[in-house]
């Protein structure tokens, strides 16, 4: 006789059928999704078809489809076809949708047609977290991460890549023509000529297509063209590697690791600090916040704009000078004397303030001493010019940047805190996405998809922090 636990017979009839609600526990996250969506004013958020027409075939209420998507992204089911299958066999989805079974086209169209409203739902949940006093410290870490687009690297073209393809095709045409000449006098010359002629014709057509593509690439503002997803860009990832992707910017609370705000872009990190800071201040309804970022965000004007908005920025400065390769002194070796407003060079000579200039919209002060530089014994290590002396340019707001770097130096744990804070959500969401990352095309659709991922991440994070039942109580309060 077996001592294993035995299941119930498949043909067993029960006198009192079990209710669907019995299969969903009180702590199940599906109840959080149900309560959260039920409390939303979908019409005010901008969802389509909240108020149904009196005529025509009835449609699904947007609340049901929104619940379906939030549940799907919470459980790593982003595909509309898989969500359709889940509504047929998943007990939790049967409970959540009250046994509704929308088809995949309806599910996909809902995400496509309600992108802005879904983004507002993501912001609404952050507002709920703020009301629950989750952001009392007002310290956020900002970073960007590259997420693969639907467009492959093969279908992305730059001017050099198109030229290489054209040159390769023309070389192949020349090789086939030379093979035709070699085939003369051969018994199989007719078969060779026919095959080669067909390939040459195809390659000539391909060259014409590439030349037309080269014109489009040159006319593009970014000098690159993605043929599958026109908004995706070829960006640097790690080291010198490049990938056709989107750059997702986010600010993450250092205390609870909640994503306060996010933005999908197709450019690099430089110049995004002030924009993310402004969005974070709006989300937290507070201007006095502290922003942590890596050296990729270091830009004097961007940091100045961030501080002018009332935020405190802590951004390390990377050394981008080419002085070392040139074999001359780095600018950092010239010490600034604040009291006398001058620089002291490595040779000990003083470089006083001579004039003011404006370059790239920035007001700069120029420090130089022609006589001391001309008679200096180590001039060759200071400048490669035989006529012009070494000049030091200083931005008029450089003192504020130096004060920030001093604060950063006095808080050595800042770099570690930033990494531990902002890298965790990116890694988690990429794991949920799988190897393909985004499933949709174009920036507006990718932004909608990312909003669903962020909402799912924050929901799961809050359930982990306060528990499902406590979160439901806060939602209904």
UniProtKB/TrEMBL annotation:
It comes from the Bacteria. Pfam families: DDE_Tnp_1_6, DUF772. InterPro entries: IS1182_transpos, Tnp_DDE_dom, Transposase_InsH_N. Residues 19-112 form the Transposase InsH N-terminal domain. Residues 344-463 form the Transposase DDE domain. PANTHER family: TRANSPOSASE, TRANSPOSASE DDE DOMAIN-CONTAINING PROTEIN. This is ISCps6, transposase. It comes from Colwellia psychrerythraea (strain 34H / ATCC BAA-681) (Vibrio psychroerythus).
